[in-house]
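Hello forum,

I keep getting stuck at the same step: I have a sequence, I want structure tokens, and every attempt I make locally crashes halfway through. Rather than fight my setup again tonight, could one of you with a working pipeline run this one for me? It's a single chain of 218 residues.
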Amino acid sequence: MLEAVLFDMDGVIIDTEPFFLRSESMLLKEFGVDTELEYHFRYQGTTHEYMWETMKNEFKLDAPVGELVERANVIRNRLMEEDGLQPIPGVIPFIARLHEAGVPLAIASSSPLTDIHKAVKALDIEKYFSYFVSGESVAHSKPAPDIFLDAAENLKANPENCVVIEDSRNGVASAHAAGCKCIGFRNLDFPPQDLSLATVIVTDFSDLDADYCRALID
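Reply #2:
Ran it on my machine without issues. Output:
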């Protein structure tokens, strides 16, 4: 029995991945570090703190992790203001179909809670969700299962009866570790992530609805 659907946000609901990738690359260049775009894919689904702590150590960056996170956020926010925030095609109608079918929904994202609320308000989709949880709010970020276990608990759902929507290797691994079914979203505009632990992999949301998610559970 389907009890809840848990959405990642970046790259699943909003098309923010290009802004993350560009801001990370731009900040590293300020420290004289040039990276290929593919380098940054490994951090999709992780927290900002984990990512910048890892890059600080790898590239010996002469700045505190907190400062790196804040500087990257400033660059990313500027890019988003310049280009505008856009939803992933088809995802908002999918969310609306689930809501209309009475399926409890949550957003479980590694992004800060302030970013989550800013995004859902900008897209006018806050009304569809019953719960929001950030990677900052749990003991261990993705690929650990904590964030999806937290979301399931707060929706009073059994993790085994939840479907997670994810687009990253770390996110899919987190859903798998939590015991949830997982729809892996493969964005064809980017090189493919390893989504092999997903229950099923899709490239668009057009045909997805509550019955599709129920079938993954049943």
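DSSP finds eight helices and six strands in the chain. If your local run keeps crashing, start a new thread with the error log.
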